[in-house]
Amino acid sequence: MRGAKNLIAQTHKRKRNIKQKTAWKKQCSVSRNHIFASRKPEADILHELEKEKVGDDSAEGFSLKASAPSNSHGVQPLGNLYFSPSSHNSRNSGLGNLQSLTDELVLEILGLLGGTHLGVLSTVSKSLYVFCNHEPLWRNIVLETCKGGFLFYETWKSTYVSAIRPSFEILNSGLNVRDFYSDYLFQSWLCANLEMKPEWLERDNIVRAKGISVEEFVSRFEEPNKPVLLEGCLENWAALDKWDRNYLIDLCGNVQFSVGPVEMKLEEYFRYSDLAKEERPLYLFDPRFARKVPNLGLDYEVPVYFSEDLFSVLGDERPDYRWIIIGPAGSGSSFHIDPNSTSAWNAVIKGSKKWILFPPDVVPPGVHPSPDGVEVACPVSIIEWFMNFYNETRSWKKKPIECVCKAGEVIFVPNGWWHLVINLEDSIAITQNFVSRRNLLNVLDFLKKPNACMIVSGTRDRVNLYEKFKKAIEASFPGIVDDLLSKAEDKKIQKKKLSFWESVTDSNAGAFKFSF
Amino acid sequence: MLYAIFGVQTFLQRDLELRNLSLFNRRKGFSYLFQKSLLFPFSISFFLSQGFIYLFLLSSRKSSSPAAIMSSSSPKMITLQSSDGETFEVEEAVAMESRTIKHMIEDDCANSSIPIPNVTSNTLTKVIEYCKKHVEAKSDEEGLKSFDAEFMKIDKDTLYDLLMASNYLDIKSLLDLGCQTVADKIKGKNPEEIRKEFGIKNDFTPEEEEEIRKESPWVFD
C-alpha cells in the first residue's frame, strides 16, 4: 500500500519537473543554427525589472557600454507598458493579424526571408521596421551570402547593403519608434550592450601556483582532477612580446582563419571586432593555425606540465587539439565540457578572460544537457547567463571555481569539468587539449561509447577513433593500458577496504543490521 | 499480499505441531515427516509465486512500456485533451511526432490524458491529421509534399493557431512548414500589398517614410 502511494507522489514530482524542463528547453535551446532563441517567460522579466525599479539605487539596473547606441529604435521591455498612459503597444497594431504570434515566431518567419524582402518589409509599419532591423537576422543573411568575404560597416544591415549595392550611400537614421514594447527584442538589445558588472568579477577562488615541479602539479592537481592557475610558465614565449595586431596582420596576410561558420582574413576580422556591438560576437577559433602560418606555431611552446601528449601517437589522424583564440570583449564560450574527455590548458597572451568552472557532477544553473550528452541547452549569450543565473550560485555551499586569467597566465581545465569563458577585453590566447596517463583510461572509455559517432569530435572518423587510438597506444607504449587498469583496480580495492574498516570502527555507523 | 503471509504463518505453525506429533511415532516418523515436509515447500512456493505475480504486476505498472509486456498486438493509445475539454485518442507513434509529448511519455507522465491548454480542439484536430499522415506515409516524399501543399490551404487564423500549436508541441516539420507558408505570403509583394494581406495600417508619418527610404535601397526600385 505504501508502495503505491510513493508511486503517485513520484509521478506528480516528475510531472512538475517535466513542465519546467520543457519550458526551459523551449526557452533556452540553441538549435537550428539560430543565434537567437526563446527567452525567459515574460512574467519573470517583468518581475525582475519591477524589482530593479523598486530596488535600491546602488544596484539600479545595469551599466551600459559607453559605445551603446543611444536607442535601440526605442524598444522598451513589456513591463513598461503598464506605466504608459495610453497602454497602446505599436508592436501589435503594426503586425496586423500576425500579432497573435510570439516574437520568436515572428523572427523565425522573418529569418526565412532574403535581404531584399526583409528590406521591403521594414517599410510596411513601425512595428515591422523594428522587427526587420533585428541585427541577428542581417547577420545570418551576410554570413550566408558573403561567407567570410565581407567588410563590416557599423551594423550587419549596412554591411549587407554595402556588399550588394556598393554605390548606395548608407544612412543609419535609427528611427525612434515610440510605444513599442517587447521583452524579447529589449533583452536582445540589452545583452548586446551590457557591461560586465563588477560584482560578477569579484570572486576569485582558484588555487594559484608558481614555479612548482611537474610531480607536484600531477599529484596536487592532475591526479585529483582539480583546476589550477599557473603563473610564470610563459616566460620564454616569444608570443608574449611579439604578438600584437600589426605583427599578426603582417605575418598572416591573406590567410583565412576559421571564424564561427565562415573563414575570414585577420585584418577584416579585427575591423569587425572593433565595430561590432553584439550579444554573441563572432569568435576567431582556428584549429589549424599552425599549419596555415607555421611561424605562429614557433612563437610558443607547450608548458612543461603538459608535455605528455598521448594523442600524438595518431600523428596526422589525431583529432583537433590546438586552437588560436582571438575575440573582442563579450565574446567567449558558454558552458560546455571539453570533447573526448580530454583535459586542457589555456594561456592568455593578450587581454583577460573571466572563467567559471563547475565540477563534472555539478550541472551549472540554467544549463540542461540531454540525457545522452549530445546536446546542451543553455542561455544564448554569456551575458544573459550572468544576468539570470550567476546569482543562484551565491547561496550554494560549494561555490564554483572562478578567476580572471590575465596575460601571461595559464589555466588548467581538468577533464569533465563544465566551464564558461568570457573575454573582458580584446584578447588573444592559445589553448590545447591533451591526454596524459592520468586521463588515458577516461578517454578510452569515452571513445568506445555506443553513441561515439555523435559525441566524439574534432575528427571526421569518429567511430573508428577508439580502435585506431588503442592500437597506436599499444604500439608506442606497450602494456601501458593494462598497467593503468591494474593500478586503478588496486585503488578501488584500497578504497573499499578503508570504507569497511571505517564503518566497523566508527560508533556512529549504527548497529549491525540483521537482514536476509 | 497480507493474506498470503498470514496463510504461510498458520501453515508453519501447523507444520511445527505435526513435527512434534511425529516424534512420538518414531517408527513411521521419517516417512510421516517426509510426507508433511513435501507439502510444506509446495505451499510455500504457492504463496511465494503469488507474491512474485504481485511484484511482477507492480513493476510492469512502473515500467514505461507496458504495452510490450501486457498486450503485444494493439498499439498503445495516448489521450490528448484540448483547451475546450475535448479528448482525442491517438496512437503513440503519432503523438510522439510532438517532442513535447514524446518527452512526457518517456518520463512516464502520459498514463492518463495529457492536457494541452494552449490548443483548441479545431487546431488539435488539424495537428493530429498532419502527424498521422506524416507517420503513415513516412517514406513517400512526393506524396507528403503534395499533402503539405494542400494542408496549408487554410485561412490565416487557422494558420497562426497551427503555428503557435506546433511551436508549443515542438513539431519541427509542421513549424517549418507554417513559417515558410507565411514567408511565401510576404515574398514578392510591395509594401501596400503586404499591408493588405495582413491587415496592417501604415503608421509612418511622411517625414518618417522619407527617413527610412534612405536606409533601404531596394524599396523604390
UniProtKB/TrEMBL annotation, chain A:
The chain positions of domain JmjC read 291-451
What PROSITE patterns does the database record attribute to this sequence? JMJC
* Protein localization: Nucleus
InterPro entries associated with the record: Cupin_8, F-box-like_dom_sf, F-box_dom, JmjC_dom, JMJD6_ArgDemeth/LysHydrox
Gene Ontology molecular-function annotations: cis-regulatory region sequence-specific DNA binding; metal ion binding; oxidoreductase activity
Q: Give GO cellular component annotations, separated by semicolons.
A: nucleus
Q: Which domain of life is it from?
A: Eukaryota
Query: Required co-factor?
Result: Fe(2+)
According to UniProt, the name of this protein is Arginine-specific demethylase JMJ22-like
Which keywords appear in this protein's UniProt record, sorted alphabetically? Answer: Iron, Metal-binding, Nucleus, Oxidoreductase
Please tell me whether the keyword Oxidoreductase is annotated for this protein.
yes
Q: Member of which family?
A: Belongs to the JARID1 histone demethylase family.
The answer to whether the entry has keyword Oxidoreductase is yes
From TrEMBL, chain B:
Q: Where is the SKP1 component dimerisation domain?
A: 172-218
The membrane spanning regions, by residue number, are: 38-57
Single GO biological process annotation from the record: ubiquitin-dependent protein catabolic process
Query: Quick one: which pathway?
Result: Protein modification; protein ubiquitination
Which region ranges are annotated with the description Disordered? 201-221
* Homology family: Belongs to the SKP1 family.
Q: Residue spans with biased composition (Basic and acidic residues)?
A: 211-221
Entry keywords, A to Z: Membrane, Transmembrane, Transmembrane helix, Ubl conjugation pathway
Q: Which residues form the SKP1 component POZ domain?
A: 76-135
Q: Which SUPFAM superfamilies match?
A: POZ domain (SSF54695), Skp1 dimerisation domain-like (SSF81382)
Q: Which Gene Ontology CC terms are recorded?
A: nucleus
- Could you identify this protein by its name? SKP1-like protein 1A
Instruction: Answer yes or no on keyword Zinc.
Output: no
Which Pfam families does the record match to this protein?
Skp1 (PF01466), Skp1_POZ (PF03931)
